[in-house]
């Protein structure tokens, strides 16, 4: 959720530095990076390099050049968001290389994102570019080098919505979607997510339509909707890259003719007024829910921070309001409508084949008789007339990190008189009785719980179809379609078989409570979580029985068009919810003629998707007015000692690499080489990070790492070896079913992504999430590869610290590195000074001005007619509010060191990291937002 006027300061490699290095990548004087670029790509076009370390190869490479040590600080002053809660502006500080920080986290259409990913995916392509070419293609115009700049390290970008997304507010960035994105970024972006993206580019050799060719101007009237203005955010013709399919697709997405009708929203249902674009969204959603014959729902794909949550809450409230109105006006009619609402057409067979009908009926009656008075109106209509199955209200599924945020929004944005009853279905003590759900208007739960409790739809056997689509460029379309036809019949058979499977799996006795009811509405927040339709989470979500279905996502397409299939499947958007139809109707059309294909896709999407960005105009006015955002990057110099340390580390790394090369063991040692690169980056943050820990144990040193090292030390060597073998043999995480990111193995020999299992270490439910395993988990019995290896090799910790530095002061906890010192200086200058002056102002009676106000004004349009326009004006008096700061790093060990300095300078802060329980996170987020005591609260991500 948002805050105002964040100032974002991140230290990282600057793009300028990265680009300057391009020539050097190909130079023989850079053997290590050259290898990293070449060998970092596997046979599928994935960059192994990026799967393993959290930074683009170019970033790593620049670290090896002593003249180009990445020790920069970037300062961004982004815009503020509409947030009635906002009491402060925010400073965001990134402490380590974080290309995401420059690129956003995967929004299509962000030029940096796209092009830097091309560079990752096609290391060789990138190598072929001269540094100037690369620079031109990579940097937004405002950042391109055209002669000496008077402000070489000050970047100002008022366009990038991704950056805004990253910094659009305290709670949003820290506890909300952005926090999860941040987590997802570390994991997804650099391992599986990034790989998929690279795969997409690997298949991409298409030429852009003429209108979108690089260097040619785009006729906006051709790509914009009939209203002539919409959806050009981040799409600048200068920025299009040849061969960039995603850009074409972005343009197509933004060409959707968006609705403009605003819903009339009764007073008293929300405690804040809806913004205009939210009223439009509400009207559109009501239409989708009430007027469409099938697929009652859709994808609300507004940009991050535009208020999708509040729009959905408005929808829930509105529907409840309409229903109670209709009931009071015509009770008979209401009954008929209610009966229809119970008709869950995608699972009609459910109870026909269901031996549990009686049981469900019993449960239903129990639910009704137990507490009929407390049953909310909204779900009553669906439930009361159900003769066949238990019904419940709205189910919201979201990542655990934003579960409380949803609860807070439902609490804060709904006035007492119209309160919705909300159940947070999470934690070990959650109810097992499905009839409980019927008592609530809204049930909030997480994707992990859905995955665990809901039987999965069968996987679509699509590999060969995919291959054919991928091969299409080399084949005549006829050949490829014929081939596909054969496959289609095969898959069709499978799907039919699958339908039976669904029915039988739905009555799976092991299914949890969530699988039982027919939900009135299911909302998937951060719906990109299900983008891979093969994953368990996606298949479980698709099995949920619901009348109305919604996907919320600010980044509806992250990797490829295939992402859409998963949404269509969930939404039951026929015929594209059937994979063969999706492949033939959408992918096949694009393969045949991409211009027509994308137009067709636009039309298909238009039906079910509403997307606006922060630059979207309504009647010529931006839907949201934000103050400018500034990005400032400053360079931090090492002290002499730090520089010596880094130079020595680099020299050691080089000679180690040469030794591998001489022995012909580069390939076998690629992980170690990546580790060396990682350590160079860490050395830029604080030399202590390099000492004594391997990469992943550093990241978890304050939680899983240290306690598990202690435990691992006490285990017999054979057991350790067995655990390492388990870890290395397992290619997928048992929770997300993707290749594990930050893999860890439990004592019961189950392998997970660290992030996936961490919920089971700190949450209420601490049983092993592997199916059928009931082991109790704890941080002490979850091991990383490096922990196990350290213990197997009798304490060797992989430290690359040269003996001459063993006792150096820079390797002490108390030592404040140059980067940390700079952070403290920035905090003091941007926050402390300003806030103390504010304090004195308020002492003499200055009042805080309101954040935003609806203003009506008259202006003359082109035809000379006076029109009345409304706009929301956000106060520019941000200077009047205290500034808060967010400091983030990808290494928790670094956060420890920053904390140390914050304490030394008596700076009040709260910490937030992925290892904390939801309750602890929630508490800290609340403190950060509300604590009047703190001049600054820094949350360390
Ligand atoms: N009409 C409104 N009045 C007051 N505050 C609002 C309004 N609309 C949105 N906000 C606030 O703006 C912030 C961002 O909204 P929200 O988190 O719902 O955006 P979102 O589109 O869901 O973002 P994301 O994609 O990151 O989840 C929240 O703090 C929300 O409370």
TrEMBL record:
<dbReference type="InterPro" id="IPR001650">
    <property type="entry name" value="Helicase_C-like"/>
</dbReference>
<protein>
    <recommendedName>
        <fullName>RING-type domain-containing protein</fullName>
    </recommendedName>
</protein>
<dbReference type="InterPro" id="IPR013083">
    <property type="entry name" value="Znf_RING/FYVE/PHD"/>
</dbReference>
<dbReference type="Pfam" id="PF00176">
    <property type="entry name" value="SNF2-rel_dom"/>
</dbReference>
<dbReference type="InterPro" id="IPR001841">
    <property type="entry name" value="Znf_RING"/>
</dbReference>
<keyword id="KW-0238">DNA-binding</keyword>
<dbReference type="GO" id="GO:0016787">
    <property type="term" value="F:hydrolase activity"/>
</dbReference>
<feature type="compositionally biased region" description="Acidic residues">
    <location>
        <begin position="14"/>
        <end position="23"/>
    </location>
</feature>
<dbReference type="InterPro" id="IPR000330">
    <property type="entry name" value="SNF2_N"/>
</dbReference>
<dbReference type="GO" id="GO:0005634">
    <property type="term" value="C:nucleus"/>
</dbReference>
<feature type="compositionally biased region" description="Polar residues">
    <location>
        <begin position="40"/>
        <end position="58"/>
    </location>
</feature>
<feature type="compositionally biased region" description="Basic and acidic residues">
    <location>
        <begin position="362"/>
        <end position="374"/>
    </location>
</feature>
<keyword id="KW-0347">Helicase</keyword>
<keyword id="KW-0067">ATP-binding</keyword>
<feature type="domain" description="Helicase ATP-binding">
    <location>
        <begin position="395"/>
        <end position="574"/>
    </location>
</feature>
<keyword id="KW-0539">Nucleus</keyword>
<keyword id="KW-0863">Zinc-finger</keyword>
<dbReference type="GO" id="GO:0008270">
    <property type="term" value="F:zinc ion binding"/>
</dbReference>
<feature type="region of interest" description="Disordered">
    <location>
        <begin position="1"/>
        <end position="58"/>
    </location>
</feature>
<keyword id="KW-0479">Metal-binding</keyword>
<dbReference type="Pfam" id="PF00271">
    <property type="entry name" value="Helicase_C"/>
</dbReference>
<dbReference type="InterPro" id="IPR018957">
    <property type="entry name" value="Znf_C3HC4_RING-type"/>
</dbReference>
<dbReference type="GO" id="GO:0005524">
    <property type="term" value="F:ATP binding"/>
</dbReference>
<dbReference type="GO" id="GO:0004386">
    <property type="term" value="F:helicase activity"/>
</dbReference>
<dbReference type="GO" id="GO:0008094">
    <property type="term" value="F:ATP-dependent activity, acting on DNA"/>
</dbReference>
<dbReference type="InterPro" id="IPR049730">
    <property type="entry name" value="SNF2/RAD54-like_C"/>
</dbReference>
<dbReference type="GO" id="GO:0006281">
    <property type="term" value="P:DNA repair"/>
</dbReference>
<feature type="domain" description="RING-type">
    <location>
        <begin position="733"/>
        <end position="769"/>
    </location>
</feature>
<keyword id="KW-0943">RNA-mediated gene silencing</keyword>
<dbReference type="GO" id="GO:0080188">
    <property type="term" value="P:gene silencing by siRNA-directed DNA methylation"/>
</dbReference>
<dbReference type="InterPro" id="IPR017907">
    <property type="entry name" value="Znf_RING_CS"/>
</dbReference>
<dbReference type="InterPro" id="IPR014001">
    <property type="entry name" value="Helicase_ATP-bd"/>
</dbReference>
<dbReference type="InterPro" id="IPR050628">
    <property type="entry name" value="SNF2_RAD54_helicase_TF"/>
</dbReference>
<keyword id="KW-0804">Transcription</keyword>
<keyword id="KW-0547">Nucleotide-binding</keyword>
<dbReference type="GO" id="GO:0003677">
    <property type="term" value="F:DNA binding"/>
</dbReference>
<comment type="similarity">
    <text>Belongs to the SNF2/RAD54 helicase family. RAD16 subfamily.</text>
</comment>
<dbReference type="InterPro" id="IPR027417">
    <property type="entry name" value="P-loop_NTPase"/>
</dbReference>
<keyword id="KW-0805">Transcription regulation</keyword>
<keyword id="KW-0378">Hydrolase</keyword>
<keyword id="KW-0156">Chromatin regulator</keyword>
<dbReference type="InterPro" id="IPR038718">
    <property type="entry name" value="SNF2-like_sf"/>
</dbReference>
């Amino acid at each position: 959720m948002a805050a105002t006027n964040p100032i974002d300061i991140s230290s990282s490699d600057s793009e300028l530095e990265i680009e300057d290095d391009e020539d050097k990548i190909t130079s023989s004087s850079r053997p290590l990076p050259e290898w990293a670029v070449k060998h970092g790509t596997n046979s599928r076009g994935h960059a192994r390099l990026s799967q393993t370390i959290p930074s683009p190869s170019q970033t790593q490479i620049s670290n090896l050049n002593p003249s180009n040590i990445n020790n920069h600080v970037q300062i961004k002053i982004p815009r503020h968001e509409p947030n009635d809660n906002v009491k402060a502006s925010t400073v965001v500080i990134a402490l380590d290389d974080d290309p995401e920080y420059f690129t956003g986290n995967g929004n299509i259409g962000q030029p940096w994102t796209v092009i830097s990913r091309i560079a990752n995916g096609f290391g060789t392509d990138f190598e072929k570019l001269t540094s100037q070419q690369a620079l031109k293609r990579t940097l937004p115009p405002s950042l391109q080098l055209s002669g000496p700049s008077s402000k070489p390290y000050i970047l100002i970008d008022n366009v990038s919505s991704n950056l805004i997304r990253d910094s659009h507010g305290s709670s949003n960035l820290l506890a909300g979607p952005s926090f999860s994105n941040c987590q997802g970024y570390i994991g997804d972006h650099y391992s599986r997510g990034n790989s998929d993206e690279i795969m997409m580019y690997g298949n991409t050799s298409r030429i852009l339509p003429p209108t979108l060719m690089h260097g040619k101007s785009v006729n906006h009237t051709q790509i914009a909707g009939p209203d002539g203005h919409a959806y050009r955010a981040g799409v600048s013709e200068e920025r299009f890259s040849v061969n960039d399919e995603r850009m074409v697709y972005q343009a197509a997405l933004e060409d959707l003719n968006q609705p403009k009708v605003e819903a009339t929203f009764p007073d008293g249902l929300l405690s804040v007024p809806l913004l205009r674009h939210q009223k439009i969204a509400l009207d559109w959603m009501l239409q989708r829910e009430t007027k469409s014959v099938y697929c009652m729902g859709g994808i609300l794909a507004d940009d991050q921070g535009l208020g999708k949550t509040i729009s959905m809450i408005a929808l829930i409230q509105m529907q409840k309001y309409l229903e109670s109105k209709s009931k009071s006006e015509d009770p008979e009619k209401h009954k008929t409508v209610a009966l229809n609402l119970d008709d869950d057409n995608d699972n009609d067979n459910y109870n026909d084949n269901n031996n549990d009908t009686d049981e469900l009926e019993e449960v239903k009656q129990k639910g009704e008789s137990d507490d009929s008075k407390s049953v909310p109106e909204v779900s009553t209509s669906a439930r009361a007339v159900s003769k066949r199955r238990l019904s419940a209200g709205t189910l919201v599924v979201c990542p655990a990190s934003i579960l409380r945020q949803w609860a807070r929004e439902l609490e804060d944005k709904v006035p007492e008189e119209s309160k919705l009853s909300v159940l947070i279905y999470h934690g070990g003590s959650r109810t097992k009785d499905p009839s409980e759900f019927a008592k609530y208007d809204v049930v909030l739960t997480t994707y992990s719980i859905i995955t665990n409790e809901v039987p999965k739809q069968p996987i679509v056997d699509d590999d060969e179809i995919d291959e054919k689509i991928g091969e299409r460029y080399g084949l005549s379309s006829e050949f490829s379609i014929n081939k596909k036809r054969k496959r289609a019949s095969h898959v069709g058979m499978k799907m039919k078989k699958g339908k039976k499977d669904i029915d039988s799996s739905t009555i799976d006795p092991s299914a949890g409570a969530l699988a039982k009811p027919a939900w009135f509405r299911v909302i998937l927040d951060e719906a990109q979580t299900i983008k891979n339709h093969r994953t368990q989470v996606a298949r479980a979500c698709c099995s949920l029985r619901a009348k109305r279905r919604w996907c919320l996502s600010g980044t509806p397409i992250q990797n490829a068009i295939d992402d859409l299939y998963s949404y269509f499947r969930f939404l039951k958007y026929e015929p594209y919810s059937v994979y063969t139809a999706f492949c033939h109707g959408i992918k096949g059309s694009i393969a045949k003629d991409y211009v027509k294909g994308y137009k067709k896709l636009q039309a298909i999407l238009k039906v079910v998707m509403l997307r606006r960005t922060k630059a979207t105009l309504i009647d010529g006015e931006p839907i949201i007015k934000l103050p400018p955002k500034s990005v400032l990057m400053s360079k931090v110099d090492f002290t002499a000692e730090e520089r010596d340390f880094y130079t020595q580390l680099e020299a050691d790394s080089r000679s180690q690499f040469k030794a591998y090369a001489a022995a012909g063991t580069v390939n076998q040692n690629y992980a170690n080489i990546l580790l060396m690169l990682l350590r160079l980056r860490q050395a830029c943050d604080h030399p202590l990070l390099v000492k004594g820990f391997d990469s992943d144990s550093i990241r978890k040193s304050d939680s899983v790492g240290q306690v598990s090292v202690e435990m691992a030390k006490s285990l017999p060597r054979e057991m350790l070896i067995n655990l390492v073998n388990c870890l290395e043999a397992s290619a997928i995480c048992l929770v997300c079913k993707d290749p594990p990111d930050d893999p860890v193995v439990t004592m019961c020999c189950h392998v997970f992504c660290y992030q996936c299992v961490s919920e089971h270490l700190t949450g209420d439910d601490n049983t092993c999430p592997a199916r059928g395993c009931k082991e109790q988990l704890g941080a002490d019995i979850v091991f990383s590869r490096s922990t196990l290896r350290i213990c197997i090799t009798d304490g060797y910790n992989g430290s690359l610290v040269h003996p001459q530095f063993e006792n150096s002061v820079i390797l002490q906890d108390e030592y404040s590195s140059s980067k940390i010192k700079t952070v403290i200086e920035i905090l003091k200058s941007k926050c402390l000074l300003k806030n103390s002056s504010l304090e004195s102002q308020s002492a003499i009676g200055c009042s805080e001005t309101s954040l935003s106000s609806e203003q009506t004004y008259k202006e003359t349009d082109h035809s000379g007619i006076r029109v009345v326009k409304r706009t929301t004006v956000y106060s520019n008096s941000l200077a009047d509010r205290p500034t808060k700061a967010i400091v983030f790093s990808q290494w928790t060990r670094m956060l420890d060191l920053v904390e140390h300095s914050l304490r030394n300078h008596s700076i009040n802060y709260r910490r937030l990291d992925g290892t904390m329980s939801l309750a602890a996170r929630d508490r800290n987020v609340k403190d950060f937002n509300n604590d009047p005591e703190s001049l600054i609260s820094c949350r360390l991500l």
